[in-house]
Amino acid sequence: MNLTAVIMAGGKGERFWPKSRTRLPKQFLNISGQKSMIQQTTERLSKLLDISRIFVVTNEMYAELIRIQIPHLPKENLIIEPVGRDTAPCVGLAALIIEQKYPDSIMVVLPSDHIIDKKDQFIDIIETAARKAQSGPFLVTLGITPTYPETGYGYIESSLEVEEHQEIEIHRVKQFVEKPDKETAESYVQKGHFFWNSGIFIWRTAVIRSYIQQLMPEVHEVLQSMKIAISEGNKSTASIVQAEFKRMPSQSIDYGIMEKAPHIFVIPYDHGWDDVGSWTALERINDTDENGNVMKGNHILSVDTKRCIIEGNGKLIATLGIEDLIVIDTEDVTLICTKEKAQDIKSLLKELRNQKMDKYL
């Protein structure tokens, strides 16, 4: 198959503050293992395709980090967005560039900051999704089988129409649904045909370009202007592409395409996935001690401490009689919050901005 991959690496990972910062966000950190998350993502894809077929979309601030962490990535495969415009323009620009270099290709689009335990099973499912995408005007996504009623994810509802390819099920999608409240999330888990939206997509490049033309004409118009500039290939091409990109509306690929297009399929995935969306993810990807704590770093002294997440940075952290807290110490910031509020860390960053304390962001 004529496979390519697009890694989206422009996010700031704000819910992983204070370790994830504006200039060194989550995808460039070693959250699990000895390599950064984007290095692990690239390594995972290398089992499927050559590095020459892997593209990374990011912004200028992170371009040098990518060059350092993925030095073997071809220079022309690093796609720089001049401004953030969410995932639809990101995917559209990548599709336009890939279409020029690899006609009749299939794109695997995925975030840069996911943890996937069982790499072989992941590759098998991606290959199955690619074969499905190759067979028609189909958009395929991976849906994570929920293990608890998560309210921080969007969900995918599948229909009863199921086909099987080498023991891997492919479900037709009934609808995408927004992040639910706890009661609704509990009902989704009980029903069994709802999946977490992984943000991993597989489709033919020409098909996603066609859907953008049909469903997002304002994005398509800008892409066509870019296409003319790229085909001319003169000295002003890069500046024209960047100027045109700024005209893009800000919209997600989920809202712009996936919630509206026909012929969408989801493949259930239950082989160890985590998007490490907040500090509570450390409980899922690390072993806990006999009291349910996750302790990372040296010099942590805990007495009568239960179900806490504590990460040190060198100095002694001593805890006594606390439960269900997150304590993260960095060189210049110490975060203390309840696990219940882990999804709301962005509110702290908003307050930092309000108080003009940007040096801590």
Automatic annotation (TrEMBL):
Keywords: Nucleotidyltransferase, Transferase. Residues 5-290 form the Nucleotidyl transferase domain. One of its GO terms (molecular function) is nucleotidyltransferase activity. It comes from the Bacteria. The keyword Magnesium does not apply. The keyword Nucleotidyltransferase applies. Residues 298-352 form the MannoseP isomerase/GMP-like beta-helix domain. It holds the Pfam family ManC_GMP_beta-helix. PANTHER family: MANNOSE-1-PHOSPHATE GUANYLYLTRANSFERASE. This is Mannose-1-phosphate guanylyltransferase. The lineage of its organism: Bacteria, Bacillati, Bacillota, Bacilli, Bacillales.
